[in-house]
Amino acid sequence: MSELLEPTVRDRAQEALGRHAWRDAYDLLADADAHGQLGPMDLELFAQAAWWIGQLPVAIDARERAYAAAIKAGDTIAGVTAAINLGTDNLLRHAYPVADAWLNRADRLLEGIPENVGHGWLATARAFQAAVVGDTARSLAEGNRAVDIGTRLGDRDLTAYGMGATGVAMISSGKVEEGLRLLDEATVAAVGGELDPRTAGGICCASIEACATLGDWRRAAEWTEAQDRWCQREGIAGYPGMCRLYRSEIKMLRGAWLEAESEARRASDELQGFIPAAAGMALYQIGEIRLRRGDLPAAAEALQRAYTIGEDPEPALSLLRLAEGKIVAADASIRQALDEPGHMPSWRAPPDSPLFRLVLLPARVEIALAAQDVASARSASDELTELAGTFASSSGAASAAVARGAVLLAEGDVPGARRALSDGVRLWNDVNAPYEVARARMLLAGAEAAAGNQERAAMESQAARAAFEQLGAVPDMHRADALLATLGPSGASPSSATRRALKTFAFTDIVDSTKLAGILGDEAWSSLLRWHDQTLRSLVAEHGGEEIKATGDGFFLAFDEVDQALGCAVAIQRRLADQRRQQGFSPALRIGLHRAEANRAGLDYIGSGVNQTARIAAEAGESEVLISAASLESARRGFRELGRRTLTLKGIPDPVEVVAIAWD
Question: Rg of the chain over CA atoms, in angstroms?
């Protein structure tokens, strides 16, 4: 009962919530809850704290109990508030029938009651519900209703939230300028500190998501930066997981793929138990990055995981099939995505909407041309051009120009292709999207070659190749090399200095993996490897590392600093030990580390320092972290040593002193 909760505890929890110290409030209220001391009002405080630290199941449980207590006490308004929040929370976790039932319950409780903010917040929940299933008309109607109620009752939060919902619905219906104007007004109120943090965060997410769906990345980046500043001013660590997801998308567009993947992996971990739909978006992002880097198995794994939790894997799945050389399968996949869209609820473009098609059509053009189906490519290109004009999308216009140029080139209209592709290069440059610029340059190089301009073709190809190498887009880099080879002397790559880099390298390896695979059998071993790979990739991303390549049952990794590498190695061993304690088993890993200069070759590093790291790893014992003593001297913080020894390593002329690092 609420009277059992000491006022000082409630006051401390409310004070912590007021300064956005969600974890402090959660710990206080969780302890009180364990002793049965929370009443209806206290349970709502507990739910808020749980929500902000990403503990959605705990928040739902607390609100269910708050609802039951409110109804028992005859407090209809508190019951309505709990029911609406439960409807929204269940929408976040993909429990759509449960969400609908709670919203219906709130609707029934409000029958016969004079209009109040509950009617308005129910309308915002209904608008969100309609949006994710693609019912744009209802979403627009409910959003307008929320604005009307909020305006009449003078509720600033409700009015702004309703404006955000209305703006998103307008954009989906093709009224882009009006929708963006409403969204901008609502988002200014959010980042200006006028609104409750959850209201403000929700509006920011809706605004950034709408910009991303449109392909208006400049606007998305500006609002993301504004949201980050708001979070810093308000002392908010971030709208749980979502800020990281948006930063990942923008970093990917800007070409910072390693940083983007790191952000996406952390977002997928943070959002997994909070907002599965958003976790699926983060996994899709990882799949796209891996596809571009040429790591097709990892791309397939990420897309499968995204699909499993409800994210549509297109168009990346069709492009993956194309990269695998399965043109027929790719063509069938993208056709099905366009002609027979699934009915997965979506936070981005509503299923089977014009915005949904805008995202898929560039892949349709690329795959149709690979299948030598120029007529289908032309049809898709024409539709893409029309939609890009309808939605006034900067990236849509760039995609349309490139698609048009590719089709014109296939049709033999070389002058037209050159004009369209030059436009595409310029437009993608304006968006600041280096990968897309380089891809457009490759097509332009082909058009220049077809026009007999060998030197210009070589210049475009070399510029594209340099960008692909910088990005780590290995498959595209190889295609650039192949094109340059056909251009004769004009295509000779200009000489460049070898790229040297100082890194802390690490090799991980499962101890006795062959024996373990034989004991477990193929299916169990494959399952274990998937868990191992996902766990290590998440920890590497968390510690700012780069996965250079998978080595079968381990990884070759690179870090900028020794502290990052050792912190990651320690975290890996601790995670495995936790798994052993909780589940009874996890594989034992050996990890070796060394800091050295090496040559960068595509995505790989080569050199004696890399070889020495591999030799140190091979000498590490079961569950041991072993680093060269010289490298440990570069660490900025202290790591507890277990002992030192001197090794004679194959291929290394001098003895090497190594240090075993404590991790337990």
Answer: 28
Amino acid 242 reads: M
Closest CA to 159 of 138, 181, 190: 190
Measured in whole angstroms, how far is the alpha carbon of residue 6 from the centre of its chain?
42
CA distance 337 to 318: 9
Angle at alpha carbon of residue 315, lines to 312 and 320, rounded to 5°? 110
Q: What is the pLDDT of residues 538-575, one digit of tens each?
A: 899 888 888 888 887 899 999 999 999 999 999 999 99
Cα(453)–Cα(625) distance, integer angstroms = 57
- Per-residue pLDDT tens digits for 242-254: 878 888 999 999 9
pLDDT tens digits for range 604-634: 899 999 999 999 999 999 999 999 999 999 9
CA distance 387 to 357: 8
> What's the rounded Cα separation, in Å, for the pair 66 and 236?
26
Residue-wise pLDDT for 480-497, tens only, equals 999 998 887 766 655 444
pLDDT band of residue 239 (cuts 50, 70, 90) is low
Cα 138 to Cα 105, 127, 130, 204: the distances in Å are 19, 7, 6, 22
Cβ atoms of 41 and 2 within 8 Å: the answer is yes
The string of DSSP codes covering 43-98 is: HHHHHHHHHHTT-HHHHHHHHHHHHHHHHHTT-HHHHHHHHHHHHHHHHHTT-HHH
Dihedral angle over CA of 189, 194, 199, 201, nearest 10: 70
Residue 596 in contact with residue 612, Cβ under 8 Å? yes
For residue 293 the two structure tokens come to: 């880097």
pTM of the predicted model, to two decimals? Answer: 0.80
Q: If pLDDT is split at 50, 70 and 90, which confidence band does 7 have? A: low
If you count DSSP H runs as helices and E runs as strands, how many of each does the chain have, helices first?
A: 30, 8
Residue 352: the pLDDT is 74
**189-201: buried (b, 16+ CB within 10 Å) or exposed (e) per residue?**
bbbeeebebbbbb
Q: Give the position of tokens 């709670």.
A: 102
Residue the block writes with tokens 């003078």: 154
604 strand-pairing partners: 601
Interatomic CA distance for residues 158 and 126, integer angstroms: 13
- In this structure, what DSSP letter does residue 607 have? S
**Residue 302 CA from chain centroid, whole number:** 11
Give Dmax (Cα) for the chain: 88
CA distance 655 to 657: 7
CA 186/CA 132 separation, integer angstroms: 20
Cis omega (within 30 of 0) for bond into 350: no
> Among candidates 515, 485, 661, 504, which has minimal Cα distance to 590?
661
659: helix, coil or strand?
strand
pLDDT digits (tens, 9 = 90+) for 413-465: 999 999 999 999 999 999 999 999 999 999 999 999 999 999 999 999 999 99
